[in-house]
Design a protein that fits this description.
binds xanthosine-5'-monophosphate; 5-stranded mixed beta sheet; single chain; about 325 residues; alpha/beta
Length: about 325
């Protein structure tokens, strides 16, 4: 891979911001660019860099793909409004669920999401805006894993030999591609992003679809969304790198009020990691695990089993899909 990493120890965040702002201005010239904001720290930092470089000539969109966490679209639009950046919320739920229909294979699902995002949704948005560039927050770990063939990260295109101009009608600008998460957090602090954004645990581009094993339907996403809210409420004070809920495909036999209940399984993962490249499970106190099981089995309809993953990365990965 020809892209050279800038490690946290060698990063001069102020200089990096000045250089990237200049670079974006030079590339876009007097044209327009579109930013794909997902609410994660990477795309938030990329959007602010783009805004600094282009001002109103950057159009920022938040795509509601139906796979987001509870209240997320409205929350992000409001955080960016406070920062002086207008974000347009685009309802693309149908496009994504149609694309995911009948797909159970992980890479097949990831590819469907990539297509829906870049071709169907952004292809149209970039055209309508009269732009030629899409700005996105791809980071160094994303390319590394995709190029190594571990997972096709939804945002990796050029590194896989995809000519985005030919395929989707626009070029991609990736100002953060040399940085890992810890370095992006430093840049975000320097960009004056609020703590609640730069200290957020990472969240994958394919969103809750990365946490549903098997077919991704509105109903199944609804289940994992409810479990995610509980996991985030209970684990936000843990100081862990990332924590998540996964909905399994297999059912298991449970019992409720003396009757058989063949129900769903939720797996909880909570990670200690610096950069998502490797990770180990957080040694959560037993009372916390107990509360998670109690809440998830009572508050999420149909769930009869909650497990906690005790596996390191590798051989596990952080997300399940
Ligand atoms: P894995 O599951 O590969 O995840 O160990 C490493 C880190 O990347 C996030 N992740 C993604 N982020 N697009 C993204 O933007 C993706 O397709 C994607 N898949 C995983 C994951 O949450 C973790 O922090």
């Amino acid at each position: 891979m020809e892209i050279k990493e800038i490690a946290l120890e060698e990063l001069d965040a102020e200089k990096f911001i000045a250089e990237k702002t200049e670079e974006i201005s030079l590339i876009v010239g007097d044209g327009l660019a579109v930013s794909a904001l997902s609410g994660g720290v990477d795309s938030a930092a990329a959007t602010i860099l783009g805004h600094k470089a282009l001002g109103d000539r950057l159009k920022t969109y938040f795509i509601d793909n139906g796979l987001m966490r509870e209240g997320e679209p409205e929350n992000i639009v409001s955080v960016f409004k406070d920062l002086g950046v207008t974000v347009e919320l685009v309802d693309a739920k149908k496009t994504f669920f149609d694309a995911l229909k009948g797909r159970a294979d992980p890479e097949d699902k990831r590819e469907a999401i990539t297509r829906a995002f870049y071709r169907d949704v952004f292809g149209a948005l970039v055209r309508e805006a009269g732009a030629r560039y899409l700005l996105q927050g791809t980071n160094y770990t994303d390319i590394e894993e995709t190029v190594a063939g571990i997972k096709r990260q939804h945002n990796i295109l050029e590194q896989l030999g995809i000519d985005t101009e030919e395929m989707y009608g626009y070029k991609i600008i990736e100002p953060l591609i040399q940085l890992r998460k810890s370095a992006i957090r430093e840049v975000s602090k320097e960009l004056w992003l609020p703590d609640k954004i730069y200290n957020r645990p990472p969240f994958p581009g394919p969103a809750l679809a990365a946490r549903v094993i098997g077919e991704v339907t509105p109903k199944r996403v609804g289940i994992v969304r409810k479990a995610t809210t509980i996991v985030e409420e209970e684990l936000s004070s843990s100081g862990a790198f990332q924590y998540l809920a996964i909905l399994h495909e297999d059912k298991v036999t449970g019992v409720r009020e003396g009757k058989r209940d063949y129900g769903l399984q939720i797996e909880v993962r909570c990670w200690e990691s610096k950069d998502a490249k490797t990770g180990s499970p957080t040694e959560l106190p037993y009372e916390v695990l107990d509360r998670l099981a109690e809440r998830i089995t009572t508050e999420v309809p149909g769930v009869v089993s909650v497990t906690y993953s005790i596996t390191k990365k590798p051989p596990s990965t952080i997300e399940a899909v």
